């Protein structure tokens, strides 16, 4: 069984500001309190292709393992390691991120895809964020019904964390807007 969901959010900020906020959301001390499920983020690789105008980045992200506490107890691990691959195309003004867990794969597979693109109705002022997430628990056949419940709980937690992330992104966008206007917050 796979639990999947899609979310879309419109930031009433230009694409350049929103993508800048995306890079900063894990590094700001204020955000660590809101995004408490994120334990560590390290940039593994960054490559700029000057011919195509694209930035390729790979980051390692360590999070509290998703799911109910008793599942973490059963699998014997409280943290989950993920890899995020991103492509920023400055020319077409698009940013695409794909994150997959690399630990706990015997129990759980999570893939999140996020796109930031200029909003078609206001491309200079707004940004559309589309997020697709799929969660798959790999159960033993006797545990299939419990796996569905765990997938649901994981999906609910991911949606809660997505809302927190949007809150952080909005705050950073407002900070960047004020910064560019010469106002201190």
Largest sheet report: 7 strands, antiparallel
N→C terminal distance: 47 Å
Uncertain regions spanning at least 5 consecutive residues: none
What proportion of the residues form beta strands (DSSP E)?
A: 35-45%
**How would you describe the oligomerization state of the chains in this entry?**
single chain
Question: Mean pLDDT across all residues, rounded?
Answer: 86
Approximately how much helix is present in the residues? 25-40%
Secondary-structure element string: EHHEEHEEEEH
Question: Can you characterise this structure?
Answer:
Helix content is 33%, strand content 43%. The protein has helices at 15-24, 29-34, 69-75, 144-181, and strands at residues 2-11, 38-49, 54-64, 79-89, 94-101, 108-119, 122-137. A 7-stranded antiparallel beta sheet has the order 1-7-6-5-4-3-2. A hairpin with a 4-residue loop joins strand 4 (79-89) and strand 5. Helix 1 packs across helix 4 (144-181). The termini are far apart. The model has no long low-confidence stretch (mean pLDDT 86).
Put the structure in a nutshell.
The protein has 185 residues and is of the alpha+beta class.
Features:
185 residues, 4 helices, seven-stranded antiparallel β-sheet, alpha+beta
């Amino acid at each position: 069984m796979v639990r999947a969901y899609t979310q879309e959010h419109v930031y009433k900020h230009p694409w350049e500001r929103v993508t800048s906020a995306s890079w900063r959301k894990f590094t700001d001390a204020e955000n660590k309190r809101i995004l408490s499920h994120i334990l560590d983020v390290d940039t593994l690789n960054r490559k700029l292709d000057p011919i195509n105008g694209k930035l390729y980045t790979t980051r390692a992200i360590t999070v509290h393992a998703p799911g109910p506490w008793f599942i973490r107890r059963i699998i014997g691990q409280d943290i989950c390691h993920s890899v995020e691959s991103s492509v920023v195309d400055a020319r077409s003004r698009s940013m695409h991120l794909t994150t997959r867990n690399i630990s706990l794969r015997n129990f759980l597979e999570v893939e999140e895809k996020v796109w930031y693109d200029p909003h078609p109705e206001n491309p200079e002022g707004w940004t559309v964020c589309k997020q697709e997430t799929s969660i798959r628990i790999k159960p033993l056949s006797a545990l299939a019904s419990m796996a569905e419940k765990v997938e649901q709980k994981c999906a609910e937690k991911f949606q809660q964390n997505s809302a927190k992330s949007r809150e952080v992104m909005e705050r950073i966008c407002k900070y960047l807007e004020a910064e560019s206007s010469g106002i201190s917050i």
